[in-house]
């Protein structure tokens, strides 16, 4: 789904900021702020110094951005800088504690309103087992809190395992071992949390906790977990625990506190938050560098760059004020669905169209420049959830209303279609004829991901031989983007199939393929059967290539003589709901995209008939994660 952290700046924006564009610099820093805040806040367990470490991180980003050699590596670089600042803070804290044991009162007590487990539960509305996972993180060893901050972001789709490894200065294999150990600690802590919350509780557990002071710690986790493991009553409580990876998949970043979120460009906090949290004073403190000229937000207040460079410590409102204020009604907000299934929201009547939205009467011309102002829209509900888009009347508003976290257009541009706030556009090099200098430059600027040859095994699509694709592949690698394999129409796991021969040839030539791209269309309109067939297909492909998968086209469509056949809208919606729930359980399935956004007499799997009128299938997609 989605938080602002999933909308980190694209390569073009980073390049502009490196070259001195002050507005671009402010946008880069603002887009980076949620990710930095989440890493620091969780690693420091909500310590009162979180705001200061966030500020020090952003100061270094501003100062050293011109020296960044590879703009496409901005996110990895940002995470590494953030972890370095966390470690520097920990070193300073330990020195102070060693110098004067009395400073323990100052340096070890978190801000009581800043406990990240509690704020995650409160501000993301976590329910049931997700709540237990958040509570269990309080029991981790101190040294694992830094790792937790990165692993949590990896599981929620914000960063990759390689970025975690780079930030920690470890090999991916070493990181995997450490994460496995940490997950075991969280799992045992979940059993402890559930046992302590049980009503009626275990009488023997009460005797074990007689001397416990009520504060979670690694020592007491081990003691209580030993009891849970050996106790028949407490042991039964943990038999229904779902896998941690499944519970965390798709969660957003923790929303910024209002005092920080108010400085995001073009983002307005609710009136309650604006009244509860006054903007920081412009009184300058010791500057870490020159304040960029004109670096103010649209309202004339401080920009994020100005805030980072010039904020004296203590001027950003405390996180307590952020919790007390209304949670920002911008892209960081999200609705978390309960763990137990309920009536699908697509079954309800569609909501009334917002009166403020004006839908164009005709489709924009493909050559028209996209509007620089993204449509007002519901929040993105999942960074994994995407949709294939082609232009039609009201396409931009329909895309925004879909709550998709990403989209693509089978090209390197999206003419006439505005990217909603919080969502991302992913370019594609569709066929051999698109491998040109101009198209590759546009794809690189739109990064960091690049989809490649669309159904090369189909004569009416890319229509390419394996050798043609392999010969052109080095030009795609030169963009520096993370590359998806060519998206075959079928036969992904088949030995000696098109994709198998391509992957074998890529390995022989030393070509890089970062993830597998697939299409799947089900001819069986029975929901359970269709979902099972889709899962089997994805599993077979993953077992063959052992790479992350993007499912970039899928729906129920039966291709037979006389044209495609579609199920009823209700059947399609039921499949979409069940399929997306299943996809959320697959750790290797990084993203999916429904086929597609427009709903016409020809494209009856579509989501919207115009900018605001969602079909039954469209309402199911809006509710999906």
From TrEMBL:
Gene3D superfamilies, A to Z: 1.10.1740.10, Glycosidases, Winged helix-like DNA-binding domain superfamily/Winged helix DNA-binding domain
Biased composition (Pro residues): 279-293
All copies of domain RNA polymerase sigma-70 region, residue ranges: 29-93
Positions of the UniProt region annotated as Disordered: 273-302, 344-375
Composition bias, Low complexity: 354-375
Domain Asl1-like glycosyl hydrolase catalytic stretches: 399-621
Organism superkingdom: Bacteria
Keywords: DNA-binding, Sigma factor, Transcription, Transcription regulation
Entry-linked NCBIfam families: sigma70-ECF
Family from the record: Belongs to the sigma-70 factor family. ECF subfamily.
Protein name: RNA polymerase sigma factor
Organism for this UniProt entry: Micromonospora ureilytica
Origin organism lineage: Bacteria, Bacillati, Actinomycetota, Actinomycetes, Micromonosporales
């Amino acid at each position: 789904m989605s938080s602002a952290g999933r909308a980190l700046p694209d390569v073009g924006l980073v390049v502009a900021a490196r070259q001195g564009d002050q507005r671009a610099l402010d946008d880069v820093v603002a887009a980076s702020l949620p990710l930095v805040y989440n890493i620091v806040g969780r690693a420091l367990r909500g310590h009162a110094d979180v705001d200061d470490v966030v500020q020090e991180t952003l100061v270094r980003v501003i100062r050293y951005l011109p020296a960044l050699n590879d703009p496409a590596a901005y996110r990895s670089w940002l995470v590494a800088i953030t972890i370095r600042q966390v470690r520097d803070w920990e070193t300073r804290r330990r020195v102070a504690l060693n110098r004067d044991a009395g400073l323990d009162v100052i340096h070890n007590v978190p801000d009581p309103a800043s406990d990240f487990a509690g704020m995650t539960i409160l501000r993301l509305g976590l329910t049931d087992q997700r709540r237990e996972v958040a509570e269990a993180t309080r029991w981790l060893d101190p040294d694992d809190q830094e790792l937790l901050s990165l692993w949590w972001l990896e599981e929620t789709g914000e960063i990759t395992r390689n970025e975690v490894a780079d930030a920690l200065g470890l090999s991916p294999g070493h990181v995997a071992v450490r994460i496995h150990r940490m997950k075991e600690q969280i799992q045992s802590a979940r059993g402890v949390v559930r046992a302590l919350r049980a009503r009626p509780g275990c009488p023997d557990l009460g005797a074990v906790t007689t001397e416990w002071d009520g504060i979670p710690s690694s020592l007491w986790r081990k003691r209580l977990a030993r009891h849970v493991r050996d106790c028949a009553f407490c042991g039964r409580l943990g038999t229904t625990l779902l896998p941690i990876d499944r519970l965390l998949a798709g969660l957003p970043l923790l929303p910024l506190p209002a005092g920080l979120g108010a400085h995001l460009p073009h983002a307005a906090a609710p009136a309650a938050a604006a009244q509860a949290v006054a903007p920081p004073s412009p009184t300058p403190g010791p500057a870490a560098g020159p304040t960029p000229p004109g670096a103010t937000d649209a309202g004339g207040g401080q920009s994020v760059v100005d805030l980072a460079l010039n904020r004296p410590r203590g001027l950003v409102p405390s996180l307590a004020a952020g919790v007390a204020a209304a949670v920002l009604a911008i892209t960081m907000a999200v609705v978390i669905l309960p763990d137990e299934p309920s009536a699908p929201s697509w079954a309800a009547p569609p909501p009334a169209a917002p009166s403020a939205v004006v839908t164009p009467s005709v489709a924009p011309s493909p050559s028209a420049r996209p509007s620089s102002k993204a449509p007002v829209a519901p929040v993105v509900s999942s960074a994994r959830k995407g949709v294939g888009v082609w232009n039609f009347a009201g396409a931009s508003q329909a895309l925004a209303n879909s709550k998709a976290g990403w989209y693509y257009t089978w090209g390197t541009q999206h003419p006439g279609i505005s990217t909603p706030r919080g969502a991302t556009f992913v370019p594609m090099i569709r066929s051999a004829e698109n491998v040109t200098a101009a198209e590759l430059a546009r794809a690189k600027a739109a990064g960091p991901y690049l989809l490649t040859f669309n159904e090369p095994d189909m004569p009416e699509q890319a229509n390419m031989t394996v050798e043609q694709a392999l010969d052109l592949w080095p030009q795609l690698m030169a963009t520096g983007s993370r590359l998806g394999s060519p998206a075959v129409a079928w036969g992904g796991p088949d030995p000696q199939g098109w994709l198998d021969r391509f992957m074998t040839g890529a390995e022989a030539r030393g070509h890089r393929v970062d993830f597998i791209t697939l299409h799947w269309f089900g001819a069986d309109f029975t929901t359970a059967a269709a979902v099972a067939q889709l899962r089997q297909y994805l599993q077979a492909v993953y077992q063959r290539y052992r790479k992350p998968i993007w499912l970039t086209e899928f729906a129920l469509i039966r291709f037979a003589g006389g044209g495609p056949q579609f199920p009823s809208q209700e059947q399609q919606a039921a499949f979409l709901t069940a399929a997306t729930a299943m996809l959320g359980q697959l750790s290797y399935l990084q993203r999916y995209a429904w086929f597609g956004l427009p709903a016409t007499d020809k494209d009856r799997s579509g989501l919207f008939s115009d900018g605001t009128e969602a079909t039954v299938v469209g309402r199911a997609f809006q509710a999906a994660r």
